[in-house]
Amino acid sequence: MRNLTYLVAMSLDGFIAAPDGTYADFLFEGDHMTALFEEYPDALPTAGRRALGLDDVPNRTFDTVLMGRGTYEVPGGLPSPYAHLRQYVVSSTLTGTPSDVAVISDDVVPAVRELKAESGLDIWLCGGGKLAAALVSEIDRLVLKVHPIVLGRGVPLFDGEFPVHKFAKVETRTFASGVVFTTYTRC
């Protein structure tokens, strides 16, 4: 069985993006980026992998990405941002995606359970907050990249109501950039 991993950058005050869905205020330089490139090259957009010379690096952790419509349509986004992964967008209204981007328009929980039952690498929950809230009971691992910024408002890490779910801390790493990676697993 495959795991669903919510790997996401967030601000100190719990936001994964600005109110308009952009993330320009997050840090894109520093030693945390080196760790990200080394440990999660599959979580980089295909164009970024190409620019860094990583397009021949096989996927290590993920072979599937799951994202909400806001994450998929972030301003300046690409029609097939993660072409090196199986791409799924959760939306009841999105149409016109490229053939390599599947749309889940029905209840996402059964669809994710089907994906988890398949063989292969893990599934990356890329964002957004509403989708994370809808899937909290299916998330096996959280990898939070906490940036030393305060946004004040924006897209919350989990945007919605759900029962309490407990996670156990597995690892915390602090980088010179001030970014902290903390990994949790579902209890």
TrEMBL record:
GO terms for biological process: riboflavin biosynthetic process. Residues 4-181 form the Bacterial bifunctional deaminase-reductase C-terminal domain. GO terms for molecular function: 5-amino-6-(5-phosphoribosylamino)uracil reductase activity. PANTHER family: 2,5-DIAMINO-6-RIBOSYLAMINO-4(3H)-PYRIMIDINONE 5'-PHOSPHATE REDUCTASE (PTHR38011:SF11), DIHYDROFOLATE REDUCTASE FAMILY PROTEIN (AFU_ORTHOLOGUE AFUA_8G06820) (PTHR38011). SUPFAM superfamilies: Dihydrofolate reductase-like (SSF53597). It holds the Pfam family RibD_C. Gene3D superfamilies: Dihydrofolate Reductase, subunit A (3.40.430.10). This is Dihydrofolate reductase.
